[in-house]
Design brief:
The structure holds 2 protein chains of 2 kinds. Helix content of chain A is about 20%, strand content about 25%. Chain A is of the alpha/beta class. In chain A, the strands form 2 sheets. A 10-stranded mixed beta sheet of chain A has the order 4-3-2-1-5-8-9-10-11-12. A two-stranded antiparallel sheet of chain A has the order 6-7. Chain A is globular. By secondary structure, chain B is an alpha/beta fold. Chain B has one domain: 3-Layer(aba) Sandwich (Glutaconate Coenzyme A-transferase), CATH 3.40.1080. Helices cover about 20% and strands about 30% of the residues of chain B. Chain B has a 7-stranded parallel beta sheet. Chain B has a 3-stranded antiparallel beta sheet with strand order 5-7-6. Classes of the chains: A alpha/beta, B alpha/beta. Chains A and B meet through helix 3 and helix 4 of A and helix 3, helix 4 and helix 5 of B.
């Protein structure tokens, strides 16, 4: 599972461009931080109040006052800045974050996601997911293609509560990359080691296929 | 006693980072501090920080954004011992900021079309639906900073800042827990995040080892 998650995180890195301000959600998105180097030129923001997040510190260099949104120890790079929660979410809601990378429980055929509550369970946690979905200029979803029990996570309609009406822009799994074009999913890439048939068998949503996806 | 039965408290911190643990621990020793409404992003961890206060049955309502990390909160809610008002994190931060800035309510796009929109007025601006949220205020705010001067000016420590400066603006009484109190003039005015007009009381933090002893 850990290896699968690292694979997905590495596939997300290819979608990030130099100069972007990027917020990483909890789970697979968090793994992206340690895969970035100065050469990527990406500035990471974390909603608990830091722009300029660096890689995880060595075990003997952990600062308990310096954590990311998953409350894991991080470092601050030269040029970093700290700010309050209201200012942080002003950056997010105000459209100042280029890209948010979020995890998802489910993605529907319109590219909308459910990533905060399980169906039929009490709703006791939301965090910053809804703010990022309305505020980030671009949203990339990083998720395994299927759940641990093997169910498709890309489905016609989400059974878990939606996180926003806004559709995401890109969905990256270990097997495929979908773009969200207008009102639907478009399969734009099939990962090495996977086939169009595998993707079709493990995806419960309708989607179209870009010509480029089939070019091997 | 500065905190009384039925009060609404704001408590700073993101998880335990930037949480005023000395002040929260003192609440346990105050028998009046019960039937509390707590506005805080989380309710601590089981038995630690606000989690200890919850375990003592002192908190009846929690307003925050992320409670699933403490299984005691999930259990208290399931057993009907705790009312939970879940708010998107950015909306919560803005509601506190608004509460401290004389703004009664505000509209945001966050949460439109979701379960958290229930009960909120929807209004379109430039064709985009927004939700109306009321500002938040408290009787008492318990906040954590790194250093204060003797006037109450505050500077913070990295991501331990989080909700603390916002909460400093939005309560009738603001108590700041700090590691150090320095003479007036010792803090760089350009570095002060919370000006002293917002701070009523200063309390020195016990270090974590002291806190666990007492």
């Amino acid at each position: 599972m850990a290896e699968l998650q690292q694979t997905i995180a590495a596939r997300v890195v290819r979608h990030l461009a130099a100069g972007e301000i990027v917020n990483l959600g909890i789970g697979i998105p968090t793994l992206v931080a340690d895969l970035l180097t100065a050469a990527n030129g990406v500035h990471l923001e974390t909603e608990n109040g830091l722009l300029g997040v660096g890689p995880a510190p060595a075990a003997d260099a952990i600062d308990p006052m310096l954590v990311n949104a998953g409350k894991q120890p991080v470092t601050a790079l030269p040029g970093a800045s700290y700010f309050s929660s209201s200012q942080s979410f002003g950056l997010i809601r105000g459209g100042h974050i280029t890209t948010a990378v979020l995890g998802a429980l489910q993605v529907d055929s319109h590219g909308r996601i459910a990533n905060w509550a399980l169906p039929g369970r009490p709703i006791l946690g939301v965090g910053g997911a809804m703010d990022l979905l309305v505020g980030a200029r671009r949203v990339i979803v990083a998720t395994t293609h299927t759940s641990r029990s093997g169910d498709a996570k890309i489905v016609e309609e989400c059974t878990a509560p939606l996180s926003a009406e806004r559709a995401v822009d890109v969905v990256v799994t270990e097997a495929a990359t979908f773009a969200v074009d207008g009102d639907g999913l478009v399969l734009v890439e099939i990962a090495d080691g996977f086939t169009a048939d595998w993707v079709a068998d493990h995806t419960d949503a309708s989607y179209s296929v870009a010509d480029t996806a089939l070019r091997q | 006693m500065l905190v009384r039965r039925g009060d609404t408290l704001m408590v700073g911190g993101f998880g335990l980072v930037g949480k005023p643990l000395t002040l929260v621990s003192a609440l346990s020793d105050n028998p009046d501090a019960t039937d509390l409404t707590v506005i805080s992003n989380n309710l601590g961890e089981p038995g630690v920080g606000l989690g200890a206060l919850l375990a003592q049955g002192r908190i009846t309502k929690a307003i925050g954004s992320f409670f699933t990390s403490n299984p005691d909160v999930v259990a208290a809610h399931a057993e009907g011992r705790l009312e939970v008002e879940l708010t998107p994190q950015g909306t919560m931060a803005e509601a506190i900021r608004a509460g401290g800035a004389g703004i009664a309510a505000f509209y945001v796009r966050t949460g439109v079309g979701t379960k958290l929109a229930e009960g909120h007025e929807v209004r379109e601006f430039d064709g985009v639906p927004h939700l109306l949220w009321r500002a938040l205020r408290a009787n008492v705010a318990l906040i954590r900073a790194a250093r204060a001067d003797e006037l109450g000016n505050l500077v913070y420590d990295k991501t331990a800042r989080n909700f603390n400066p916002d909460m400093a603006t939005a309560a009738d009484l603001v108590i700041a827990e700090v590691d150090q109190i320095v003479p007036v003039g010792a803090l760089d005015p350009e570095a002060i995040v919370t000006p002293h007009v917002l701070v009523d009381r200063l309390v020195l933090a016990h270090n974590r080892d002291d806190a666990s002893d007492g």
